[in-house]
Amino acid sequence: MAELERITIYPIKSLDGYDVAEAELLPGAGLRHDRQFALRGTDGEFFSAKRTEKIHRLRSVCDLVARTLELRRQGESGSSRFHLDDDRAAIESWLGEYFGARVILVENDMGGFPDDTESPGPTIVSAASIETVSQWMPELSAEDLHRRFRMNLVVSGVEPFWEDRLFGAGDGAVQFQIGDVLLEGTNPCQRCPVPTRDPESGEEFDRFVMTFARRRGETLPDWAAKDRFDHAYRFTTNTRLVPTSRTSKIHVGDAVRIVG
After folding, report:
1. How confident is the model at residue 69 (pLDDT cuts 50, 70, 90)?
2. Architecture in CATH of 3-31+115-258
3. Which of 42, 72, 218, 233 supports an S-S bond with 79, CB 3.0-4.6 Å?
């Protein structure tokens, strides 16, 4: 039986995530606390791994209940601890020194800062898909890939690339349930350069995109909507909450099923 195996939240966009046993989906948005904060430059652009590989070497522990943040440089044992509200200037100073540029910590607790604003729900993938991709690149474990692709939801008990069943041809969306929560898949997620780099060192995996795209194209399921793949460097499925859903909380262990 298909069930939700893992939920991962990333409280600060592009920084470290953590696993939770349950999560709430916000109306018209993603998971509560996911990408709730972001690091913005004076030019309005986010500091992200797309913009600077230095972000890979930045470790963070964010507790949104206690409203605390710990920061440290990769390889260093000591960390600096801050309160997200009371120490905002100190956080920005620490980050500014690290990046060598002015950093502004911004917050949106009503929807976060998703990459896909039309489908801001959690990204979803099957555990079998992650295992399959790890076989394409034996140097990388399934956990390595989870950290590189930064997916939110992992489903067990289904075949590799099951998540490709969650969208149809054209702009077709497919509804599915996690427990009592009704969502719909919208499109295969277009990936950026971030997964090509080691999430701790930033070191580039030279053959990553070429290997992934070639094998993804070769193994694209017969039932997949081929017209949704203008290129094969797409992995995980973007989603959104269906407004008529009776509840909005999902839990590890919830049954998962396609309903339409």
Report:
1. very high
2. Beta Barrel (2.40)
3. 72
Distance CA 72, CA 74 (A): 6
Q: Are 72 and 78 spatial neighbours (Cβ–Cβ below 8 Å)?
A: yes
> What whole-number distance in Å separates Cα of residue 163 and Cα of residue 248?
20
Tens-place pLDDT, residues 140-163:
999 999 999 999 999 999 999 999
Residues 6+ apart with CB under 8 A from 87: none
H or E stretch covering 88: helix 88-99
Helix (H) or strand (E) holding 136: helix 127-136
Q: What is the pTM of this model?
A: 0.95
Phi then psi for 187, rounded to 5 degrees? Answer: -165, 155
Q: At residue 53, does pLDDT exceed 90?
A: no
User: Is residue 19 helix, strand or coil?
Assistant: strand
Q: 176 near 258, Cβ under 8 Å?
A: yes
Q: What is the pLDDT of residue 260?
A: 77
Q: What is the DSSP letter of 57?
A: G
99-137 confidence digits (pLDDT tens): 999 999 999 999 999 989 999 999 999 999 999 999 999
Which of 197, 216, 207 lies closest to 129 in space, CA to CA?
Answer: 216
Q: What CA–CA distance (Å, rounded) separates 254 from 27?
A: 20
Burial class (CB in 10 A: 0-12, 13-18, 19+), 240: buried
Do residues 249 and 31 make contact, with C-beta atoms less than 8 angstroms apart? no
Q: At residue 227, what are phi and psi to the nearest 5 degrees? A: -70, -10
